[in-house]
């Protein structure tokens, strides 16, 4: 956790930089005060699927007439339930599908339905103060449900948000996705605070390059849960920085020095050469950040009890990176898929097609003891979730 020996310096960092940030949010803290993680991939161990399974619990997601999954955007686990943000790509239908912790289907909340709790578009959702909150960025509102999916109430928000997190006192942070709703030319910040009523608070953090103004797309990933109460982590592409998000401020916690890194100035220079037309710019930009040679974003961050855990894609491999004072440990994996945080010790990995793995034991499995794991699956199965223990992954 952030206060443990592996990352003991973060409280000191916060104290040092918060005064500078409160005066002018766009002023960076002195680099000397922020620890830098030099990501080295020379001594990497190739992770086998068998080892991954040994560190995981495989959860089949029940398939019924109402629980079919096509493309999973996000998964959140809370108590004995799992919430899956799903999109049927052929129809653009967006819904929230609720399962219990064993993967049995409980309920589906669908967009564009009649009655209270109707939403048009899910841009994000999260569990906040034991309620389920869905963010509808088209209607600029938050719809609240209880944990079973029963409607409670809703209210508007001043900002069009792509991602949102909530603190215990009702304060929220809106991640604006680099382009939405910039009525003020000076307002070029990704993270904006608003109160429990949806009213904007004059707190803005993490500036983005002005060249991305009015460009509607997202670079960084989700807010990540912290081991410390009422705090979150956030990783930013252009700044190569992991931030600590608190209810009063967002402060740099770690600088990343990735392999083959492009510093911020060179990234801006590269993007400045792209065609200005929106469609061409978008195409060039996405090709740039998704290039195997670009360390584009940290897809998972966890301040685990064993150290700071990162996961990212680089040169067509998935990497799991554990940073700790005793020395960094690096695992690589050929099976690239989506990851979603659970807490500071566990994460979900999506198994899109369990049947394919089941049919290919000879290629993936070291011995027959893993065969029963995939016995429940056939050609009609939903995707499955692997609940992975960070500690067991590095044993």
Highlighted features:
395 residues, mainly beta, Neuraminidase, five-stranded mixed beta sheet, 7 helices, 26 strands, 37% strand, disordered N terminus
Describe this structure in words.
The chain is mainly β and 395 residues long. The protein has one domain: 6 Propeller (Neuraminidase). 14% of the residues lie in helices and 37% in strands. It has seven helices and 26 strands. The strands form six sheets. It has a five-stranded mixed sheet with strand order 1-19-18-17-16. The protein has a five-stranded mixed sheet with strand order 2-23-22-21-20, with no helix packed on it. Strands 3-26-25-24 form a four-stranded antiparallel sheet. A hairpin with a 4-residue loop joins strand 5 and strand 6. The chain is globular and about 55 Å long. The two termini are 18 Å apart. The N terminus is likely disordered.
What is the element layout, followed by pairings?
Layout: H1 10-23, E1 36-38, E2 44-46, H2 49-54, E3 56-60, E4 71-78, E5 81-88, E6 93-100, E7 105-110, E8 124-128, E9 131-136, E10 141-145, E11 151-156, E12 163-166, E13 172-175, E14 189-194, E15 200-207, E16 224-225, E17 232-236, E18 241-245, E19 250-257, H3 264-272, H4 278-289, E20 300-304, E21 307-314, E22 317-323, E23 329-333, E24 339-341, E25 346-351, H5 354-358, H6 361-364, E26 384-389, H7 390-393
Parallel strand pairs: 1-19, 2-23
Antiparallel strand pairs: 3-26, 4-5, 5-6, 6-7, 8-9, 9-10, 10-11, 12-13, 13-14, 14-15, 16-17, 17-18, 18-19, 20-21, 21-22, 22-23, 24-25, 25-26
